[in-house]
């Protein structure tokens, strides 16, 4: 990714941010990454662990537009991954979700425009598709804001192994209690490894034109099978869907199908209907190709 010399990475001390930075340190020699986040503890730990002069750790909040604009100066690209991401947290604190996920995103957009940055990528989620939660609704609005300004969004499924993923939860439960908790025996989700998400992000930064949404192709996992793959002999307790939670997720819906173009390993959604749209159905986790229990075990073991 030699065309990009300086990157502003919001939420850079999160699971994706750490994976992205680690990947970049292995591939490029001459660049700077500004790691912009408000988690002091994570910044200190990450800075000490990586100890690399190409990294510039900045304590900052995306709700502060002036700070964002200052540290965006001279950047070739902005990756916006900072957000309140947990559905229950956003349900309990909708005003804070709006301040961070919508107003904070508007600040990222303004800072990028002020600094004439063309390559600006927003990390979105399948929860933004026909949202039923506060989190999903804020991501939908943020997506629209970025696309309206001819920037790019990427819709990911669940980032496997991240702090908010159910995988570490199941692994912890298998060690600390005699049962695993699953919300519903029919629940399905899309999963992508952190490494694959980073590789896809780099691909999108290099190829993006602006005004589009990238969607990687992912296999689906039945959450009950995920629990059995992690702890096959541990009983499962079903707890029921949480407020705002869906049984299945979609990467795009029936209203978006006319704007979708399919490629070998991903889809691209245009901002307008396409004459050569190539999809005939929605891309949902209950209908997509699913991993077997054996495939899930390999997937988890290789995270």
Short description:
This protein is an alpha/beta fold and about 300 residues long.
Kindly describe this structure.
A hairpin with a 3-residue loop joins β14 and β15. It is built from ten helices and 16 strands. The two termini are about 25 Å apart. The mean pLDDT is about 95. It is globular. It has helices spanning about 15-25, 40-50, 65-70, 85-90, 95-115, 135-150, 165-175, 195-205, 225-230, 295-300; strands at about 5-10, 30-35, 55-60, 75-80, 120-125, 150-155, 160, 180, 190-195, 215, 220, 235-240, 250, 260, 265-270, 285. With about 300 residues, it is α/β, with parallel strands linked by helices. The protein has a nine-stranded mixed sheet with strand order 3-2-1-4-5-6-10-15-14, with helices on both faces. Strands 7-9-11 form a three-stranded mixed sheet. A two-stranded parallel ribbon has the order 8-12. α3 (about 65-70) packs parallel to α5 (about 95-115). It has a domain at about 5-155 and about 195-215 and about 250-280: 3-Layer(aba) Sandwich (Rossmann fold).
């Amino acid at each position: 990714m030699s065309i990009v010399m300086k990157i502003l990475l919001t939420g850079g001390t999160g699971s994706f941010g750490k994976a992205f930075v680690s990947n970049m340190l292995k591939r490029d020699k001459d660049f700077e990454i500004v790691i912009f986040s408000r988690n002091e503890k994570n910044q200190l730990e990450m800075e000490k662990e990586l100890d690399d002069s190409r990294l510039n750790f900045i304590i900052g909040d995306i709700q502060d537009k002036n700070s964002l604009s200052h540290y965006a100066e001279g950047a070739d690209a902005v990756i916006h991954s900072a957000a309140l991401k947990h559905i229950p947290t956003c349900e309990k604190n909708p005003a804070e979700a709006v301040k961070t996920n919508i107003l904070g995103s508007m600040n990222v957009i303004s800072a990028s425009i002020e600094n004439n940055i063309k390559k600006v990528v927003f990390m979105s989620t399948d929860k933004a598709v026909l949202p039923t939660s506060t989190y999903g609704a804020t991501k939908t609005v943020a997506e629209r804001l970025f696309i309206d300004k001819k920037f790019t969004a990427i819709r990911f499924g669940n980032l496997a192994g991240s702090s908010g993923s159910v995988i570490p939860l199941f692994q912890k439960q298998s060690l600390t209690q005699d049962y695993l908790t699953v919300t519903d025996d029919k629940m399905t989700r899309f999963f992508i490894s952190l490494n694959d998400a980073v590789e896809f992000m780099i691909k999108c930064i290099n190829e993006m034109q602006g005004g589009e949404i990238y969607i990687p192709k992912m296999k689906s996992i039945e959450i009950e099978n995920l629990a059995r793959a992690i702890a096959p002999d541990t009983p499962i307790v079903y707890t029921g869907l949480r407020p705002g939670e869906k049984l299945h997720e979609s990467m795009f819906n029936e209203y978006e199908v006319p704007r979708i173009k399919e490629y070998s390993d991903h889809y691209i959604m245009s901002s307008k209907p396409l004459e050569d749209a190539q999809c005939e159905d929605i891309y949902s986790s209950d209908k997509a190709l699913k991993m077997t229990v054996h495939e899930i075990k390999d997937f988890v073991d290789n995270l």
